[in-house]
Design a protein that fits this description.
- The complex is a heterodimer.
- Chain A is of the alpha/beta class.
- Chain A has helices at 51-58, 76-81, 100-110, 117-123, 139-150, 169-184, 196-202, 220-226, 242-246, 268-277, 292-307; strands at residues 13-22, 25-35, 40-44, 66-71, 85-88, 157-161, 188-193, 205-210, 213-218, 230-235, 251-257, 260-265, 283-289.
- In chain A, strand 1 and strand 2 form a beta hairpin.
- Chain A starts with 12 loop residues before the first strand and ends with a helix.
- Chain B is an all-alpha fold.
- Chain B has one domain (2-245).
- In chain B, 78% of the residues lie in helices and 0% in strands.
- Chain B has ten helices and no strands.
- Chain B has helices at residues 2-14, 16-37, 50-81, 83-87, 96-123, 130-157, 163-177, 189-195, 199-211, 218-245.
- The A-B interface holds A 59, 61, 63, 80-83, 85-87, 89, 91-98, 102-103, 105-107, 109-112, 146, 149-150 and B 2-4, 7, 10-11, 14-15, 78, 80-86, 88-92, 244, 246.
């Protein structure tokens, strides 16, 4: 497991051997992790991986069966009261019967270090719907209002659970531009997402969660490398000796169809070098990176295979 | 917390249907009941005219409507929608939500009480001393907190489709059996024996003691105090249970 260089500061988030079970299901299973100031971290995992439970534990909405959770070296509730955390949850509802502006104003007045209401509205891109009733919003608009509530004041950590659910592509892009701005101000951002390209494009650290345990922790590039991150394909004329190919170094998968060979390799340079060393003459050689999505699938599949 | 109280209030004042039911409805019922009964006669067992007797009943009923009807359903709905959860991600103290709900209900219940008094004095010629008017307003207003606590407890107890019927049964049951709609002196004896232990009965009895310049009965004060402890304790317990599972 790759660990990010740890500065000698108090971690923003500290999980120490945290376990949470529902009946016989271990939603979070001995999870330990630390987040440091200024990091933009993606929490990645399939449905039921324990992402939402992890965020709930982090925010003190649920209590761990064992282990300890800390935010800025204190308990979650203390950090929230001090206004150090802004959070947007999927399950977070909105008060109905009031306007968007009224709701944002409420969030601002509850925060110990609030921003001006107009600024919060503008940054979340909801200034033009400020007078609309909250119950009349589309899914994407409601998400933006939730985002405004999470960023109503000067918080050090922003937590987002699947923030772009219900947004179309352009809204999603605008949203992440806003989010980057937050990260650029030195905030720590932790977000859970299903859109894997978002983790790839935005996060400088990716945590892969599966069955409540941390499978991988590193940069998007490192995660891809861990999964056998490069794909090599080429054609071979004449017979293909699969056994010889299978003996190639750093090979993680081999697929032969007709004359075409597709290989996944953890170290493409070494694999290609060895390929020539076999005395073969590959044609149409291509080496390409795996998307994070494929890397992610590869990691979770490997884990499932290991467990069964 | 003031910001939330203000917003709750703004929302309540915008809700025309709720305002009609909690502010005007008790006065209308008062007019209908007191007119049909003939206002000059005395109510059995008291030296109060029907109009005076019913005034306290309907002011109490109005306060009960304002604090019970709005809150239980709203709390249940907002627990389900996740708004309660969202508020827990803010520095608002845990009890702030319940206090804001209770405070905004109390602000709506005051005009309901005053409106019944105004109609009684203006149309039905009910005459009382100044201290009696003030004491009545204070006692009925303060007493409504007992039922505000009950509303909160129901909001945390029930969910979804069950809230409205449960609230309705409690609301009409307490109003009717407590003698807010008709004097409980007309009930059969066995029902009177039960009714005198209901908080709504004690609630209206306090107001009537003031109207008759009598000292309040210890039993009524005790019934209200015990009810308040039960309802508020129940609400606090249910609230904590809900917090742990949310």
């Amino acid at each position: 497991m790759t660990t990010t260089a740890a500065p000698a500061t108090t971690p923003v988030v500290g999980f120490d051997q945290v376990t949470k079970t529902y009946g016989s299901v271990r939603a979070v299973d001995g999870l330990s992790l630390r987040l440091y100031p200024g990091e933009t971290v993606a929490l990645l995992g399939p449905n039921g991986a324990g992402k939402s439970t992890t965020l709930d534990l982090l925010l003190g909405l649920k209590h761990a069966d064992s282990g300890s959770v800390s935010l800025f070296g204190t308990g979650p509730r203390e950090a929230i009261v001090a206004g150090r955390v802004g959070a947007m949850l999927q399950s977070g509802g909105l008060m109905d019967g009031v306007t968007v502006a009224e709701l944002v104003k409420l969030a601002c007045s509850l925060h110990p270090r609030p921003y001006p209401v107009s600024e919060v509205l503008a940054r979340a891109g909801i200034a033009q719907i400020a007078d609309r009733k909250v119950d009349k919003l589309s899914g994407g608009q409601a998400q933006r209002v939730r985002f405004a509530l999470a960023t109503a004041g000067d918080s050090d950590l922003i937590i987002l659970d699947e923030p772009t659910t219900g947004m179309d592509v352009s809204a999603r892009q605008a949203f992440w531009a806003t989010m980057r701005e937050q990260a650029d101000r030195g905030r720590t951002v932790l977000f859970a997402t299903h859109y894997l390209e978002e983790a790839d494009a935005i996060a400088d650290r990716v945590l892969v969660l599966h069955r409540g345990r941390l499978l991988a922790d590193g940069t998007a590039a490192e995660i891809k490398a861990k999964a056998g991150a490069r794909r090599i394909s080429f054609d071979l004329e004449g017979g293909i000796e699969q056994d010889a190919l299978r003996g190639l170094p750093f090979l993680t998968s081999l697929d032969v169809s007709g004359q075409t060979v597709r290989i996944q390799s953890a170290d493409a340079d070494a694999t290609v070098h060895a390929l020539y060393g076999l005395g073969l003459y590959p044609r149409n050689l291509e080496v390409a990176g795996l998307g994070l999505e494929q890397a992610f699938v590869a990691i979770t599949e490997a884990e499932e295979a290991r467990q069964s | 917390m003031n910001a939330l109280i203000k917003l709750e209030l703004a929302r309540a004042l915008r809700n025309k249907k709720f305002l009609f039911f909690s502010v005007l409805y008790p006065s209308i019922i008062y007019l209908i009941f007191s007119s049909s009964a003939g206002s000059s006669g005395k109510v059995y067992g008291t030296d109060l005219t029907v109009a005076t007797y019913l005034m306290v009943s309907m002011a109490s009923f109005g306060a009960l409507t304002a604090v019970l009807m709005g809150n239980s359903e709203r709390i249940a709905k907002e627990r389900e929608s996740g708004w309660v959860r969202q508020l827990r991600l803010t520095p608002l103290p845990g009890r702030g939500y319940v206090l804001a709900k209770t405070a905004s209900a109390a602000v709506v219940s005051l005009p309901a009480i005053v409106m019944v008094f105004a109609v009684a004095a203006g149309i039905k010629d009910v005459r009382l001393d100044a201290w009696q008017w003030l004491a009545l307003t204070g006692v009925i207003w303060a007493g409504s907190l007992v039922f505000a606590a009950l509303g909160v407890a129901i909001g945390y107890l029930a969910s979804g489709d069950a809230v409205r019927p449960i609230t309705m049964i409690v609301y009409f049951g307490l109003s009717l059996l407590g003698g807010l709609w008709m004097p409980s002196a007309g009930f059969p004896q066995w029902l009177q024996d039960i009714a005198q232990w209901l908080p709504t009965h004690a609630y209206a009895a306090l107001g009537r003691a003031i109207e008759q310049s009598q000292a309040p009965h210890t039993q009524d004060i005790a019934v209200l105090a015990v009810s308040f402890v039960l309802f508020a304790g129940g609400a606090a317990w249910l609230y904590r249970k809900d917090t742990l599972k949310a």
